[in-house]
């Protein structure tokens, strides 16, 4: 190879690498946005923060009306009361949302609830305050009793609760969606009194209620405009005042930072708790088809009408009486059409950048590289913390970062600084929705993408596009609307602009103070329209994301993603060349006659009596001899809810059928006569959700695995008496995600469990103590993709049926792979979604589910 | 195909950003940067006229009512080394004087301002005053009948007003200026410490300090949260235009004479708008034109005709709006009064704190006495 050619190849390789890196542009832009709006301002404030640790380096320039400690107490008290009231009001609507997730009507209801949230909170308070019945007998009565201050405070509370209860409702909606309908049915059957039912519901909804209260608490703590309008001194307002009267604030923010320390600490703690709860609630628990909430609908409708529709209607009525809507609209158009347009343009850019940031952060979280995922987490967490700090500090940060006599000034003097202000104040929506989107992705989807090597922007784009696109769209819409009403930071950094281009919110606040409600009313109509549009988008997105969790099971998701990934041509598959099965003979064909199958999913062998039992999706149990001759069949008693996925033959020849979707186990004799049945729906001892397999321990105890959010193994005496259990849902040690197959070692000391959705085989002792595990998601030998069936061979080795890899894999007892056999296809020795495997004497029966047959091999 | 879509999005975002940055840097026509704390509605009208007459584009930075002038003043201070503004149009005067003393404002010489009255301009011509707003007491006619209405500011210290007075946070806007003027005037004209005593009287009357400004004071009176309030006349006019039942009094700064009239030069405080050029502003020539325009008769007439009904200070417009004239305006030496502002605010807050402290101490003594009286007399 000539030197020139080598150089050309190297250049081409570099170009390819560059292009591949370019595929990450959303992530790169996200980092740039974060750096400009959050990272750099934070960094620029650091010297002042260090100085502030010493209490600031200047004396207090102005005396204050209230000591800071007193103001903090007032602020915390207000925030706590508003959070509590919001929880009381928002709980029932949240339950309604949760119950509607799987039904029609979710989108309009969710959109209606989101409307007040998309309006600036001060507008909601203003609407209420303008509706105060001045001049009436009530008004006089209140004045005579010197109660106007109290009345205004009550109105403030009302306004804040009207704005914030939907936050609690949304959080509760997510939690309530996971509550299975069966639980309510059982309580109703048991005749549980109302109190018991409410407490039971509260137990399910508590995480949502607490998360919602926390968010409302933080939002109220930082609210300045509402308290301004209501003439209430708060900590955040005092900080703003101190910032305004601090000489040379841009260069010396230490004093204000020192004063803000208690609130920053409070906010920081709140953020960390919210982040933890978000991660916790966004786990991979499967959403259930929940109980319809019928009786509460009227109540929810009344709440909405009273808290959202009523104040807006009163406001419009007020302007109608005062000047007339036509005149108000005319004046608004004359004065503020340019400001409205300019605000919309800036808001749209901020929204677009937030949308890109959502996409970029989600991409980073979906990356295979830990450092990229960790970077995303740092970016998101700092963004969240920054956003919930008082607006005064955000403004100071932007000043410190961009108000410099150098290149940065180009940004500070231009409207770009307003976009950065929007992203500082409301940009946290992007990481929140990105995290939500990523965490709502079924684990199966992620695992299969990993299995198929769908990496990089293209792979992530193709596999996760619908959710990411939706989340980005929602993020953009919400940030656009919220940016339009942003004041706290905008007021501090507003650059010189033409007066007909200044932010609309500033003019709006000016008009509120100068007592011109007519223009405020028109603006409220405009914002209301935008709020409704944004709310509809977010509701649609929310439904899309949650539906994925409800409707797509692990196996279906796997199938979809495998198909998508293969279609996309992502680098899939292993470099290893699996050997075909050495099939001696096969039996079964598609059909419903005796000896035929309609997607068989479980198999077991009675080696002593030479019986092979297979159950398919027609809910038939068929018995064959070892050569594959069909002997008899019988049907399960019920099959509408679903069909069994597990079968185990006991040493006495009895057959245990794991009737998965009826939450029970039925024991038959070899001819199909029912001996007994046990188990019912539930998560308590002796209750089941989706039972998958049964293994008989050395002392005759029955080990039964199940999944459905309660993924565990329960142990019963031979008589069916509950003894103990082990395992829980999750991905960590001691946890399972769909334990699908069980088998004891020949000596009975070790129990092997296929942890299907964690792509591993777990080994415990007979008491359930975790001993070890082997296998990770992948296609290489030693790796696994959805291991379902498991069988212990006579030589002490293990054979595993890999549903996701269309093969079986042979392991020794320590977990070392001894070989992989079979590849996807319909020919001899090929497999389609093998569910299970069984062994008798020297024969191994591989249930080739997708091909409706059993392939029998006698050696690897 | 999908990558193509992504690239398009990226390209659009990039272009939009460049467009904004570029749009901000381009100067298609002469421009001037104005920092203004006057009511935005009025400023719009004035700016529109100036742009039309001069062809100069005006960019503004306003502020919210709560921080009003103070926010802009601190911003100008912060930008002293790197000035962004050309002209400062303030709705009050004392903080303009402070800025001039700090070198933030520069001298302005022009034909239009050559004969500007001495009492309404800086000795070094760094600022000029125009179109004043009277400081007034707003009251609710329904709750404050004719005979009870305060005639002087001193009346507010009487115990009859306990729990009935509202005032805006004096750290911002004209309220702080007014306290400064009162302190300067009373401590000089009456006796040292007189202002502090008055502030303590106000504090003893549980004066309610509102965070949202003078308009908030008027609203508090209108809604019944207070019966009287210290505010600007233009906020009362605006409230009346809205149909709120409030009225105003032009109080004297000295006891009324035997005829019940305000002594000459001791009446209502007029706080003028001020205009000044910023030292080192980026557009000095345009700034000169804007300052001259703001000080023109046309603008002062506009402000007098506006909903704010500002009181013109130039002779030619005196008496043009007699219904809004303030009686016997207080004569103020603004440079001296300006130095009293910070101290005035401080003393006001100290008075409130002192009254709180006294009450707490009194309550403690009362509680101790009551415990002692209730205790069994053991020997």
Characterize the structure shown.
- The complex is a heterodimer of chains A (860) and B (379).
- With 860 residues, chain A is α+β, with helices and mostly antiparallel strands.
- In chain A, strands 2-27-26-25 form a 4-stranded antiparallel beta sheet, with no helix packed on it. A 4-stranded antiparallel beta sheet of chain A has the order 3-4-5-6, with no helix packed on it. A 4-stranded antiparallel beta sheet of chain A has the order 7-8-9-10, with no helix packed on it.
- In chain A, helix 23 (504-513) packs across helix 24.
- Chain A has 25 helices and 27 strands.
- In chain B, helix 5 (173-189) crosses helix 11 (334-374).
- Chain B is built from 11 helices and 10 strands.
- The model of chain B has no long low-confidence stretch (mean pLDDT 85).
- Chain B is an alpha/beta fold and 379 residues long.
- At the A-B interface, helix 2, helix 6, helix 7, helix 10 and helix 11 of A face helix 1, helix 2, strand 2, helix 3 and strand 7 of B.
- Strand 1 of chain A pairs antiparallel with strand 2 (57-61) of chain B.
Primary descriptors:
heterodimer; A: 860 residues; alpha+beta; 4-stranded antiparallel β-sheet; 25 helices; 16% strand; B: 379 residues; alpha/beta; 10-stranded mixed β-sheet; globular
**H-E string of chain B:** HEHEHEHEEEHHEHEHEEHHH
Strand content of chain B: 5-15%
Helix content of chain B: 40-55%
- Alpha-beta classification of chain B: alpha/beta
Rough outline of chain B: globular
| C-alpha end-to-end distance of chain A | 45 Å
Spatial strand arrangement across the major sheet of chain A: 2-27-26-25
Low-confidence stretches of chain B: none
Largest interface: A-B, 78 and 76 residues
Largest sheet of chain B: 10 strands, mixed
CA gyration radius of chain A, whole angstroms: 32 Å
Sheet with the most strands of chain A? 4 strands, antiparallel
Distance between the termini of chain B: 101 Å
Average residue-wise pLDDT of chain B = 85
Number of strands of chain B: 10
> What do the pLDDT scores of chain A average to?
80
């Amino acid at each position: 190879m000539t030197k020139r050619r080598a150089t050309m190849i190297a250049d081409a390789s570099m170009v390819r690498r560059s292009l591949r890196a370019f595929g990450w542009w959303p992530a790169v832009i996200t980092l740039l946005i974060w750096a400009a709006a959050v990272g750099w301002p934070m960094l620029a404030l650091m010297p002042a923060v260090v100085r502030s640790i010493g209490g600031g380096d200047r004396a207090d320039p102005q005396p204050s009306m209230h000591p800071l400690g007193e103001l903090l107490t007032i602020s915390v008290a207000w925030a706590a009361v508003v959070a509590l009231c919001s929880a009381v009001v928002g709980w029932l609507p949240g339950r309604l949302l949760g119950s509607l997730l799987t039904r029609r009507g979710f989108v309009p209801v969710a959109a209606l609830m989101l409307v007040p949230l998309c309006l600036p909170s001060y507008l909601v308070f203003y609407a209420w305050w303008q509706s105060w019945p001045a001049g009436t007998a009530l008004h006089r009565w209140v004045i005579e009793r010197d109660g106007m201050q109290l009345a205004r405070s009550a109105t403030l509370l009302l306004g804040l609760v009207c704005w914030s209860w939907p936050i609690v409702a949304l959080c509760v909606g997510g939690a309530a969606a996971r509550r299975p309908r069966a639980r309510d049915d059982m309580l109703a059957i048991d005749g549980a009194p109302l109190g018991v039912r409410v407490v039971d519901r509260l137990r399910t909804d508590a995480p949502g209620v607490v998360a919602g209260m926390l968010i409302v608490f933080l939002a109220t703590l930082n609210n300045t405009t509402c308290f301004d309008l209501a003439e209430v001194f708060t900590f955040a307002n005092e900080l703003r005042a101190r910032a305004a009267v601090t000489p040379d604030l841009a260069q010396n923010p230490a004093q204000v930072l020192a004063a803000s320390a208690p609130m920053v600490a409070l906010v920081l703690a709140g953020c960390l708790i919210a982040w933890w709860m978000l991660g916790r609630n966004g786990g991979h628990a499967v959403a259930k088809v929940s109980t319809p909430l019928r009786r509460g609908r009227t109540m929810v409708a009344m709440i909405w009408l009273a808290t959202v529709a009523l104040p807006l209607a009163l406001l419009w009525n007020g302007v109608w009486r005062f000047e007339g809507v036509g005149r108000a609209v005319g004046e608004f158009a004359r004065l503020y059409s340019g400001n409205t347009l300019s605000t919309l343009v800036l808001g749209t850019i901020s929204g677009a950048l937030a949308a890109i940031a959502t996409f970029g952060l989600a991409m980073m979280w979906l990356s295979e590289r830990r450092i990229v995922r960790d970077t995303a987490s740092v970016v998101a967490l700092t963004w969240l913390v920054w956003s919930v700090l008082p607006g005064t500090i955000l403004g100071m940060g932007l000043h410190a970062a961009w108000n410099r006599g150098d290149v940065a000034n180009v940004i500070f003097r231009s409207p770009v600084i307003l976009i950065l202000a929007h992203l500082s104040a409301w940009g946290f929506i992007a990481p929140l929705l990105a995290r939500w989107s990523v965490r709502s992705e079924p684990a199966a989807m992620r695992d299969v993408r990993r299995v198929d090597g769908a990496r990089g922007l293209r792979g992530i784009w193709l596999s996760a596009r619908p959710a990411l696109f939706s989340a980005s769209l929602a993020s953009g819409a919400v940030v656009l609307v919220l940016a339009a009403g942003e004041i706290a930071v905008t007021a501090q950094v507003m650059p010189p602009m033409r007066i007909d281009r200044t932010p609309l919110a500033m003019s709006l606040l000016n008009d509120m103070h100068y007592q011109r409600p007519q223009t405020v009313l028109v603006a409220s109509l405009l914002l209301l329209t935008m709020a409704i549009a944004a709310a509809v988008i977010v509701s649609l997105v929310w439904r899309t994301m949650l539906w994925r969790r409800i409707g797509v099971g692990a196996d279906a998701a796997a199938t979809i993603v495998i198909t998508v990934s293969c279609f996309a041509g992502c680098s899939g598959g292993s470099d290893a060349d699996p050997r075909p099965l050495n099939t001696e003979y096969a039996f079964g064909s598609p059909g419903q006659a005796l000896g035929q199958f309609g997607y068989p999913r479980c198999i077991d062998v009675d080696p002593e009596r030479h019986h092979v039992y297979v159950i398919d999706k027609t809910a038939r149990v068929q018995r064959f001899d070892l050569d594959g001759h069909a002997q008899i069949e019988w049907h399960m008693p019920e099959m509408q809810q679903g069909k069994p996925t597990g079968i185990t033959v006991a040493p006495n020849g009895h057959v245990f059928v794991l009737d998965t979707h009826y939450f029970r186990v039925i024991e038959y004799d070899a001819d199909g006569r029912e001996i007994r049945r046990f188990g019912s729906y539930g998560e308590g001892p002796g209750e089941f959700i989706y039972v998958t397999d049964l293994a008989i321990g050395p002392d005759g105890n029955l080990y039964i695995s199940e999944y459905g959010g309660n993924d565990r193994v329960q142990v019963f005496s031979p008589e069916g008496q509950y003894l103990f259990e082990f395992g829980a849902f999750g991905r960590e040690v001691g946890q399972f995600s769909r334990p699908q197959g069980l088998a004891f070692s020949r000596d009975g000391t070790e129990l092997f469990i296929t942890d299907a959705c964690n792509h591993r085989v777990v080994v415990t002792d007979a008491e359930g103590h975790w001993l070890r595990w082997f296998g990770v998601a992948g296609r290489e030998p030693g790796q696994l993709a959805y291991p379902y069936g498991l069988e212990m061979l006579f030589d002490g080795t293990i054979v595993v049926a890999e549903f996701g890899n269309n093969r079986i894999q042979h392991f020794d007892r320590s977990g070392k792979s001894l070989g992989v056999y079979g590849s996807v296809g319909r020919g001899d020795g090929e497999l389609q979604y093998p569910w299970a495997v069984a062994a008798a004497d020297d024969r191994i029966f591989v249930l080739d589910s997708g091909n409706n047959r059993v392939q029998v091999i006698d050696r690897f | 195909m999908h990558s193509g879509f992504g690239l398009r999005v990226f390209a659009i975002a990039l272009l939009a950003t460049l467009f904004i940055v570029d749009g901000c840097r381009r100067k298609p026509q002469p421009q001037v940067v104005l920092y203004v704390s006057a009511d935005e509605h009025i400023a719009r009208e004035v700016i529109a006229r100036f742009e039309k007459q001069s062809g100069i584009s005006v960019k503004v930075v306003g502020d919210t009512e709560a921080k009003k002038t103070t926010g802009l003043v601190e911003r100008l201070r912060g930008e002293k080394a790197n000035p962004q503004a050309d002209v400062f149009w303030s709705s009050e005067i004392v903080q303009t004087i402070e800025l001039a003393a700090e070198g933030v404002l520069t001298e302005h010489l022009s034909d239009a301002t050559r004969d500007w009255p001495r009492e309404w301009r800086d000795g070094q011509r760094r600022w000029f005053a125009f179109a004043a707003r009277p400081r007034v007491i707003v009251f609710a006619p329904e709750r404050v009948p004719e005979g009870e209405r305060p005639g002087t500011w001193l009346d507010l210290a009487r115990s009859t007003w306990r729990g009935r007075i509202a005032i805006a946070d004096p750290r911002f806007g004209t309220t702080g200026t007014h306290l400064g003027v009162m302190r300067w005037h009373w401590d000089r004209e009456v006796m040292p410490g007189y202002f502090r005593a008055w502030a303590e009287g106000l504090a003893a009357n549980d004066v309610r300090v509102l965070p949202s400004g003078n308009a908030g004071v008027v609203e508090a009176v209108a809604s019944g949260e207070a019966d009287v309030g210290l505010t600007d006349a233009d906020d009362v006019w605006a409230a009346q235009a809205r149909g709120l039942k409030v009225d105003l009094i032009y109080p004297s700064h000295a006891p009324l004479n035997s005829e019940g009239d305000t002594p000459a030069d001791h009446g209502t405080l007029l706080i003028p708008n001020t205009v000044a050029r910023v030292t080192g502003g980026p557009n000095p020539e345009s700034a000169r034109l804007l300052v001259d325009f703001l000080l023109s008769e046309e603008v002062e007439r506009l402000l007098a005709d506006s909903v704010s009904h500002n009181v013109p200070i130039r002779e030619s417009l005196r008496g043009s709006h007699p219904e809004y004239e303030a009686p016997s305006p207080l004569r103020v030496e603004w440079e001296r009064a300006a130095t009293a502002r910070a101290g005035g605010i401080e003393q006001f807050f100290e008075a409130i704190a002192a009254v709180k402290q006294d009450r707490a101490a009194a309550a403690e003594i009362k509680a101790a006495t009551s415990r002692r009286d209730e205790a069994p007399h053991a020997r």
